Amino acid sequence: MIFRVQILGSGSATPRLHRNPSAQYVNVLERHILIDCAEGTQIQMQKYKVKPQRIQHILISHLHGDHYLGLIGLLSSMHLNSRKKPVHIYAPEGLKEIVNMQLHYSKTTLGFDLIFHPLVGNQPEKIFEDKLIEIWTIPLEHRIYCNGFLIKEKEKPRNISKEAIKKHGIPIAMMHRLAKGEDWVQPDGAILPNEELTINPPAPRSFAYCSDTRYSEKIVDTIQGIDLLYHEATFLNNLKDRAKKTYHSTAEQAARIAKLCGAKQLIIGHFSARYMEVEAFEEEAGATFENVKAVNDGDIYDI
Amino acid sequence: MIFRVQILGSGSATPRLHRNPSAQYVNVLERHILIDCAEGTQIQMQKYKVKPQRIQHILISHLHGDHYLGLIGLLSSMHLNSRKKPVHIYAPEGLKEIVNMQLHYSKTTLGFDLIFHPLVGNQPEKIFEDKLIEIWTIPLEHRIYCNGFLIKEKEKPRNISKEAIKKHGIPIAMMHRLAKGEDWVQPDGAILPNEELTINPPAPRSFAYCSDTRYSEKIVDTIQGIDLLYHEATFLNNLKDRAKKTYHSTAEQAARIAKLCGAKQLIIGHFSARYMEVEAFEEEAGATFENVKAVNDGDIYDI
Prior knowledge:
2 copies of one chain form a homodimer.
Chain A: E1 3-9, E2 23-28, E3 31-37, H1 41-47, E4 57-59, H2 65-68, H3 71-80, E5 87-92, H4 94-105, E6 114-119, E7 126-129, E8 133-139, E9 147-153, E10 159-160, H5 162-168, H6 175-179, E11 184-185, E12 191-192, E13 198-199, E14 206-210, E15 228-232, H7 240-245, H8 251-260, E16 265-269, H9 279-286, E17 292-294, E18 300-302
Parallel strand pairs in A: 3-4, 4-5, 5-6, 14-15, 15-16, 16-17
Antiparallel strand pairs in A: 1-2, 1-18, 2-3, 7-8, 8-9, 9-14, 10-13, 11-12
Helix pairs in contact in A: 8-9
């Protein structure tokens, strides 16, 4: 029951040798999702053994280069490696025009379908669902239109207690109704409540990616009770004026959001290239929210 | 008197961990030139300690992704690092539109001038000169419009023989005329020919970059007597049909061009990702042209 987040890039605008700009790979129940795709992401995927051809959904937060410039190269490589399966891209409107123009000038017709889902809303919006998961936007406050993303499991069916079933002689045909939470009406008309027949399933797990954004409590409702929160922390708090001016957050602010939404774990990244070491980010955030980690490229977080 | 070529990427379409796609840095007499700029080139520059802010001219051969996708990221980083000096870009026409669209959607106004020099010709054309060097296009045969580039020193002034000057008592004011090749008319009217007063200057040095291209002898005149020739060799000769079909060359074909133009040294690259080792390229080319090297990322060639 995998729900894994792998960091492919944890830096901000300018790439560094050991810290590429933003990209994350999420495998949730074998749904393969790429969030953001900075220049060099396809190389990072090779380095960390993430297979590009498995990616089904690509979520792009916004159209600053450090969040999408690797996309066209990744798509080209998928094409050159004979991909046939479609790729869904969820991104601000301009991206389709940018990608199509680049394909036009290189006289390339991709061998697979590229399905663009333009993002335009300013409220959280469900952009994908199947029988097991949902993906939502998290509108953020940045210099240009920008969304974070919430990936969560759907409520799982209730686990049926084999002993209770046997004891009460409930027919097999009822099982899927019990799993949905229905009570059992016995032949004599007496009602056996569902909670005597089933056990709570594991709680649905969730991950939120919030980058790039100024400190904003507006997102707290959407990510309430999140299991794993990635929140950008471009600066330390002594540069909080600069953070506000450039529509970014500090480590302390990321921690405040994690605390407000009752996150179980916080991971922070998108560090400004001015910082050579990032221990100070963990320390600063840790004073407000204990379970925090400053991420590095290649890190894996299992939920 | 530096004339140095540094390989920043020696692979073809799809990047590999130890072989990035095309980019080369040329320092000719402190003119700093970047030829092609694949995705990840700015990272390669960090790795090989090439300073982006020194680059004055960027030459783009054609609009396949593995030759230009790193450009917008490089320009963004130059901007974020407070560049003020202009950048000249020599490239096929569409590139200006692509770059401007990406700047538009990221709401970025660069802090320096970006001067596009669109390339449209089908004959060799001088696209830059100053007092010491010239840059020419080398039209190539590829699937889309594509140019190689010839970078050469101008003819140097003749070296004046101090002994001859002293012996004949020639005035200082004459020196620049002697350097240009003039004879000296002595006070008695007798002529002292220039070659008795001066020594041949070093021959002007030259470098040609020919990628991507099908085997074509049309380029031989333009690069006749070249000191250092970089010619693409995407395939080995057992795939020469494939090379022709995809508008690429084989190692043997690159060597034939080097031989035909009387090159002093041949370097080959743009190897297809199917080849893990490239010794076979050197061997195949070496049978036709002895002084050949299959390049690796980071290699430096001094002329």
